[in-house]
From TrEMBL:
Signal peptide feature range: 1-18
Organism: Anolis carolinensis
Cellular component GO terms held in the UniProt record: mitochondrial fatty acid beta-oxidation multienzyme complex
A single MF term (Gene Ontology): acetyl-CoA C-acetyltransferase activity
Protein name: Trifunctional enzyme subunit beta, mitochondrial
UniProt superkingdom: Eukaryota
Residue span(s) of domain Thiolase N-terminal: 97-304
Subunit structure as annotated in this protein's UniProt entry: Heterotetramer of 2 alpha/HADHA and 2 beta/HADHB subunits; forms the mitochondrial trifunctional enzyme. Also purified as higher order heterooligomers including a 4 alpha/HADHA and 4 beta/HADHB heterooligomer which physiological significance remains unclear. The mitochondrial trifunctional enzyme interacts with MTLN. Interacts with RSAD2/viperin.
Gene3D superfamilies on file: 3.40.47.10
EC number assigned by the record: 2.3.1.155, 2.3.1.16
Thiolase C-terminal domain span: 311-450
Compartments where located: Mitochondrion
Length: 454
C-alpha cells in the first residue's frame, strides 16, 4: 500500500512541480497595515451572523446589508478591519479584501485584520475607536468572521519540509531521492491546536477546574445554560433579534436566525456525560458554547461625521479596557478583572449599568465570574482591591440569550455583544451597558456602551 501511495505522489509531483528556471525571482508580496479611525463616540449599524461556506464568509460585509447605510459614495468608507481567529495570514488578508470589494467599497479603502482570540472583533472595534479619536479617519467598518466548519489543517512538519525541498531539486533524480524518504507518518495531519500554549490545557478543562474551585455544581451550570437557551428562544419569538440579516447559503436554505437555540430541560441536560474532565467533570456539551460559523459587522463613525451626513447614531462607545491574568488558574476570569477597571475609568459603578452583556464561553465560567466579582476576599487577595465590584443582577444580565445558545464564532462574538447591548438599551430605556468577555491566554475585555439620546 505504501509503495502504491509513493508512486502516485511521485507522478503527481513530477507534473505539479516544474523544473526550476535558471533565474529565480525573489520578489515577495508585501502587505502594509493601514490604520483607520474611530472615536469614543461611534456609530453602529448592522450585523450579520450566519452559517455558510468560506466563499460566503468572504462577503460578510455585503450580507451585513451595509448598503442600507446609504453612504454618499463608496469612498466615504475610510477603512475596514475584520478579525479571523482560526486561519492563516493569507486567508485573513484575502477574506477582508474580498469582503470589502464584494460589498461595493472602493479599492482605495485600506483594510487590515486583527486577532485576539475570542475578543478579536472587540479589538477590531476599539482599534477603530482609537483611530477615530486621533483624527485619522471618520468612517470605519469593523467586524469579525469565523468558519469553524472548515478550519485549516496542515500537512505534518516532515511532509511540509519535504514538499518545500522539491522545488529546489535540480533534477528528477534529486526529486526521486527526496520522495523516497517519505514514510507513513508523513501523512499524519496537524490538527488545529485547541490547547493553551502556556499550559497545554484546553479551555474546557480550565472551565471544569474553575467551576470546581468556586464550588459551582453541575446542576447550577445546567440551570444557567437552560436560562440562556430559554431567553434566546423568547427573544427570537418576540422579534427582538432584529439585527440578523437573512443569508442564502449556496445549495442550502436561507438562514434567517441563529439555529443553535434549543431549549430542552435541565433534566435532559443532566443526562449528558462530562466533555473534558472524565468521568466526573461538570462541564458538558449542554453547558458549553458550541462551535459555529458566523460573521458580524458594525459601522463606526465619529459623532460629528454621522450628524454631518444626516444619520442618527445608535450608541456611543464610551470607554474600554483590556486585561490579562494567570492563564493557568484564571484563564476565564477576564470579566472579573476588566469590569472594575472600565467602571473606574468612566466614573461609574455597577448600579449605573442598565444592561449587561457578557460572553458565555461556559455556564461555569459565567457563574465563577459572578462569584469572584461578588467576593471581597477574591478582590483583596487576587486583584489588589479593597473591596468587591459586585455581581451583575440576573434581571439585567444577558436577557436575550448569550453565546451558550446563540453560538460563539470566535472572531464575530464581540460585535454581537455590542449590538445587542445597544438594542437592549433602546428597548429597555437604559442609558449605560457593559460588555465583557474572556479570551484565550488569560486575556479579558470590558467596554462601556451608552445609548445615543433618542
Amino acid at each position: 500500500y505504501n509503495v502504491v501511495v509513493l508512486i502516485i505522489i511521485i507522478i503527481i509531483t513530477l507534473f505539479l512541480y516544474p523544473a526550476p528556471s535558471p533565474r529565480r525571482d525573489s520578489g515577495r508580496l508585501t502587505w502594509g497595515l493601514q490604520f483607520s479611525k474611530n472615536s469614543t463616540r461611534s456609530y453602529f449599524l448592522g450585523r450579520s451572523y450566519f452559517k455558510g461556506n468560506r466563499v460566503s464568509m468572504c462577503f460578510s460585509l455585503r450580507t451585513a446589508d451595509l448598503s442600507s447605510v446609504r453612504l454618499h459614495s463608496s469612498s466615504d468608507l475610510e477603512s475596514t478591519r475584520v478579525p479571523l481567529v482560526n486561519g492563516s495570514a493569507s486567508s485573513w488578508l484575502s477574506l477582508l479584501l474580498q469582503a470589502a470589494l464584494g460589498a461595493g467599497f472602493s479599492d482605495k479603502t485600506p483594510a487590515h485584520t486583527v486577532t485576539m482570540a475570542c475578543i478579536s472583533s472587540n479589538q477590531a472595534m476599539t482599534t477603530g475607536v482609537g483611530l477615530i479619536a486621533s483624527g485619522q479617519m471618520d468612517v470605519v467598518v469593523a467586524g469579525g468572521v469565523e468558519l469553524m466548519s472548515d478550519v485549516p489543517i496542515r500537512h505534518s512538519r516532515k511532509m511540509r519540509k519535504m514538499m518545500l525541498g522539491l522545488p529546489r531539486a535540480k533534477s528528477i533524480g534529486q526529486r526521486l531521492s527526496l520522495l523516497s524518504r517519505i514514510r507513513p507518518d508523513f501523512f499524519t495531519p496537524e490538527l488545529p491546536a485547541v490547547a493553551e500554549f502556556s499550559t497545554s490545557e484546553t479551555m474546557g478543562h480550565s472551565a471544569d477546574r474553575l467551576a470546581a474551585a468556586f464550588a459551582i455544581s453541575r446542576t447550577e451550570q445546567d440551570q444557567y445554560a437552560f436560562r440562556s437557551h430559554s431567553l434566546a428562544k423568547k427573544a427570537q419569538d418576540e422579534g427582538l433579534l432584529t439585527d440578523l440579516i437573512p443569508f442564502k447559503v449556496p445549495g442550502r436554505d436561507t438562514v434567517v436566525k441563529d439555529n443553535g437555540v434549543r431549549p430542552s430541560s435541565v433534566e435532559q441536560m443532566g443526562k449528558l456525560k462530562a466533555a473534558f474532565v472524565k468521568p466526573y467533570g461538570t462541564v458538558t456539551a449542554a453547558n458549553s458554547s458550541f462551535l459555529t460559523d458566523g460573521a458580524s459587522a458594525v459601522l463606526l463613525m465619529s459623532e460629528e461625521k454621522a450628524l454631518a451626513m444626516g444619520y442618527k447614531p445608535k450608541a456611543y462607545l464610551r470607554d474600554f479596557v483590556y486585561v490579562s491574568q494567570d492563564p493557568k488558574d484564571q484563564l476565564l476570569l477576564g470579566p472579573t478583572y476588566a469590569t472594575p477597571k472600565v467602571l473606574e475609568r468612566a466614573g461609574l459603578t455597577m448600579a449605573d449599568i442598565d444592561v449587561f452583556e457578557f460572553h458565555e464561553a461556559f455556564a461555569g465560567q459565567i457563574l465563577a465570574n459572578m462569584k469572584a466579582m461578588d467576593s471581597d476576599w477574591f478582590a483583596q487577595n487576587y486583584m489588589g482591591r479593597k473591596s468587591k465590584v459586585g455581581a451583575p443582577p440576573l434581571e439585567k444580565f444577558n436577557t436575550w440569550g448569550g453565546s451558550l445558545s446563540l453560538g460563539h464564532p470566535f472572531g464575530a462574538t464581540g460585535c454581537r455583544l455590542v449590538m445587542t447591548t445597544a438594542h437592549r438599551l433602546k428597548k429597555e430605556g437604559g442609558q449605560f451597558g457593559l460588555v465583557a468577555a474572556c479570551a484565550a491566554g488569560g486575556q479579558g475585555h470590558a467596554m462601556l456602551v451608552e445609548l445615543y439620546p433618542q
